[in-house]
Amino acid sequence: MSTARTAVITGAARGIGKAIALRFARDGFKVAVLDLDEAACQEVADEIGAAGGTALAVGVDVSNEEQVESAVARVAGELGAPTVLVNNAGIIRDNLIFKMSVEEWDAVMNVHLRGAFLMSKACQAHMTKEKYGRIVTMSSTSALGFRGQANYSAAKAGLQGLTKTLAIELGRFGVTANAIAPGFIRTEMTQATAERMGLDFEEFLIERAKVIPVGRIGLPEDIAATAAFLCSEEAGYVSGQVIYVAGGPRT
Questions:
Q1: Which among 98, 121, 152, 220 counts the fewest CB atoms within 10 Å?
Q2: For residue 190, is it within any domain?
């Protein structure tokens, strides 16, 4: 790109978010690394800086309206108008429905759904003004249903509806909105899932790979590559889509 655009990635201190931040920096974006822990964000920003990129670490609770507005204003002031947003921040509070507490339900809804809404609302103000924008939100194959994840599955399905509505409302301003639904990806979150199930993580990976058509576990870089395409200028005619990046139709 002739002028570096500013990309905001939430949940970017580790896992998929970190992989996206690093990929976008290599692609020439100025990257705002957002997560709950600003010190962890700074480590990613430093890594980007050491490689010759431009990055800003911002600590933020994406479910907090005031913090989101402050964070986006800081990004705009220090890096420029945030015209690319990746809603990646997420948590899990897995439990079977008869055991799931209201607090576990609300925590997941607040980070995933409320967080994506607040971040999208704050950033779209800059995008519509610039007449250009890319929003990518992380859904999941769990949106199709997954045992022990009533809260997570509902949130990830809800994000697909949010994405399609953003695409409809913002398209005339040159803004696209798409969702990525990862399958099984090797991250700290999936390791936590294995631990919850009382399984050895490496053995868990081997067993999961057996049922994935491409025969391997997904990596954060697989998701970053898809996000890079959706956030490129060339993807301007792709909007309102949910792309399952899962090594097969459904895993």
A1: 98
A2: no
Determine whether 152 is an active site residue: yes
For residues 85 and 120, the answer to whether their CB atoms sit within 8 Å is yes
Quick: pLDDT tens for 9-27.
Answer: 999 999 999 999 999 999 9
Given a contact cutoff of 8 angstroms between Cβ atoms, the answer to whether 81 and 130 are in contact is: yes
* Domain CATH for 179: 3.40.50.720
pTM: 0.95
Count of domains in the chain?
1
Q: Pick the catalytic residue: 132, 152, 237, 244? A: 152
